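To assess whether ligand presence alters the predicted conformation, the chain was also submitted together with 4-nitrophenyl phosphate. Input:
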Amino acid sequence: MNESSKYSVLFVCLGNICRSPAAQAVMQAMVDDRGLTERFYIDSAGTGGYHIGDLPDKRMRVHARPRGYELTHRARRVQSSDYEDFDLIVGMDAANVSDLCRRAATIEQERKVVMMGDYIRQFPHYDYVPDPYYEGSEGFELVLDLLEDACDNLLDKIIKQNNISQ
Ligand code: 4NP
């Protein structure tokens, strides 16, 4: 944890307009629901730079809203300081994790990188969060289902491992 004693989590996908901003909003809502707003800092970024400054994809925003998530993040690219600034860096698929590990400057930084799929419990056929960009509505709903499942589990584990009191 950093000096401000907030535990910080960075969610990462390719474009930072679909999966990772949704993960950021889902995790922020869970943190808020548990009364832990002041104990966490949640952000997201992309390994690619195609959409820098953009709001999340309209389809992702439309599917997230009825579940209570307003996606207002502006896309940004992962930067080297993220590896120092964040306690945990969570990739959505194997390509994200491999890009993130390759860009890490030290073993300690690489150890911060984990795979979101490892926290999915209720969807045994998924060990990653699939890119919905070229999919229909079901793809976006699936992403939200997987993220809600994985974030709940991830948050439980972070709380336990860091003795964060609720
Ligand atoms: P994301 O989805 O990685 O979940 O944000 C994508 C968004 C845009 C592109 C690829 C994936 N793209 O190639 O523009």
